[in-house]
Structures are given as structure tokens and as C-alpha cells.
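User: Can you predict the 3D structure for this chain?
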Amino acid sequence: MNLLLGDLSLHLTLPAGRLLAVIRPTPPSSPPPAAELITAALVRCAPQLDRFRPGERVVIVTSDITRYTASEQYLPLLVTELNRRGIADREITILIALGIHRKQSEAEHRKIVGPLFGRISVVDHDCDDPGKLVSLGKTANGIDVLINRLAAEAERLILTGTIGFHYFAGFGGGRKSLLPGIAGRSSCLASHYAVLRPEPGSGRHPLATTGVLEGNPVHAALSEACALVGPEMILNTVLLPDKRLSAVFAGHWDEAHREGCRYYAEHFSYPLTEQADLVVASCGGFPKDINLIQAHKAMEYASRALKEGGVLILLASCRDGYGHPTFFSWFRHSVLAEFEEALRARYEINGQTAYALLQKAQRFRIILVSSLPPEEVRTMSMIPATTLDEALATATELLPREYTVYVIPEAGTVLPTL
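Assistant: Here is the predicted structure, written as C-alpha cells:
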């Protein structure tokens, strides 16, 4: 069996009788062509589209280059439907949901909007420009909802993106295109802070976790913010590991998103009858393992298949390092209680990811096969390895004699569940 590390394909050999299963998602193996799926979804949401009128300003929100959504395929078909209803190209703006990410290059804009480049106006969101933000009010837990002014003042707002698991918002897609996608920095930080229980020292909220919407305080805050704006509709894709479309959901911003989440949970969860002593997981290669922040979600999901105190081998090249300049500096806190205190005092989204990583590194023994400096991997409470063979040799010394194994070739897209 082969597993991906960056651009490399590594062969994995295990002792006979140890493998419990290879964990993979189970979506339809031969979905209809992408254009057919997108067109069918647009037909189903005709009641929303029929409310659009000529002369109205339409803003379409779509993800940046770090989150592939198949936007170059669905945006042209969506614009065609708007044109059919009398909305001219000049009345449409595509707004890139950067959240707190960097601006996009012209080449990246071309990839995102495909054949619409040069035809439809494309604008990057800026979370730090107060003149381009407007406050729409506060959520029940006090988040000031600062939203991109173009979106807030548009007659019609369409959110697009992709649905997948999210390690503390439950699922991506839907309302996340608005907050944090086109929100002010302070709103982004406040919405992520909801992952922590209100009381100091009480840690992470137990329902702010992967695959959970009901009772999830982060999801509740994001949904409240989205309701303040009231998007006309959403269009969300579900992607196979090879980036082909598996399904498309379009319609009311909450109802269509929940329908897509149910589909994703059904096809991208893997039920287990037992946990294993060892899990060998790949993020799925480049770009899914481009940095440690991106690779963390594969670590989060794969750990669900692991016995308490078990060993996780994670293949994550991390060719671009950590993914944010401040990420590694958070590991100056090696005690979780002190880490949490520092995080509450000066919250950062990347600090939250570092905190979640350290929680797992102290529950399990994580062997990271990457290009990161070994001494820095140790500082993060993980065990460094440069090759899969080295990682397996190290794991063998830590495991019981008759250990069991799960292998997860695309650990960022499938959730093991007991």
C-alpha cells in the first residue's frame, strides 16, 4: 500500500495480521459529471434565483486559493443563471472570502474564477480596513458582526464554498463563508474564541468539535451572524479526495447547508467497532500537507481511531513550515493549563490550533514524518522522523507486542467514529 508525503508516494508494509482496516470515505464512486450536478442544484433553487431582478447589485462570495471548492466550474454556471434573469455582468461582483488570510495574486484569481476572469469584477476581502467593513449588530454571546461593506450593501448576496468536517465548527461551508470568510479581524477572533468554555481554566467546549452542529457554540455564533445578513442563497460543493465533485447543495443558507452536512457525515465518516494501538495516517499529500496548520485536521480526525496513549504516525511534509509566523511560538507553553491561560489573555486563531495540537500530543504519542526541524518537533511534544521506515521502527519500540493498526490514506477527509 502506498501513502503520500508531499509529492512523494511511500510504500507501507505492515506485519501480517496487524491491520484492522484501511479507513476511507464511502461516497458514490462514479458521480455524474460536474456540470450535471451543478445544473441540477441550480434548478432546485430556482425559487431563490427567480427573486433576482435586473439592475440589482449581486455579490457572490467564494473561497480563496487555500480551500479548493471547484469554483472555476460552478461560478460560470451560476453567473449564466443570473444573466438569464436579467442580471448583467457589470452588476455582479465576486468577493474572495480571505478571512484573515493574505490577498490573492492575479494568477490565483484566474484559478478561482476560471473563464469569468476579466469578465466579472473580482475583489479580495480585507479584514483590517475599517472603511470596507460595516457592523450589523451583535450575537447573543457578544460578537460584534463586522462584515464586508460590499456584501452587506448588496441587494442580493450569494455564499459559495465547500462542505467538509471542521474540527471545532463541526462542518465547513455555509455560514462560514460569511464569518470568518468576509468578516473583520475582531469578529473572526471572537467567533473562534467561542471554542473555549466561558469559565477560565475550563478548557474547550465539548460540543465544539468535528461533525457536531447541535449545541456547538461556534456554529451557533456563525449562524447568528449569517442570519443578521440574510444571504439570498448558498451553493456548496462536496468534493472527493481527488477533487472531483461528489454532490452540490444549493438553496436557503441554513437548510441547504444542513442537508449537505448530513450527506457529508454519511459518506465521509467511517464507523469503527474498536480503536487501534497504532494509526498510520497521510494528509493526502501536497497541498493538503503544505504546512502544519493545514495538516492538523488530519491529525485531529485520525486520532479518533486511536486508543488512549496509542501511537499515531502522521505523514505531513510541511514544505511551507507552520503556516503562520506565530504558530510555533505558542509552544513556549508546555503545560496545558498555562497554555489555556495565555490563549485567553491574548487569543489568536493559530494559537487555538497549536493548543489543540498540544492536547493530542500529550494524550497520544505522535510521530511526525515531515521536513520540520527535529528539535522544533520535540518542542511541540511530538517525535520527529524523516522517513516512514524510521517512524515505523520508532513506533514498534513504543507498542505492545501484538499491536493493531488502522491505515488512513486521506486522513483530512474521513472521520473515524465509534
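The first strand starts at residue 2 and ends at 5. The radius of gyration is 22 Å.
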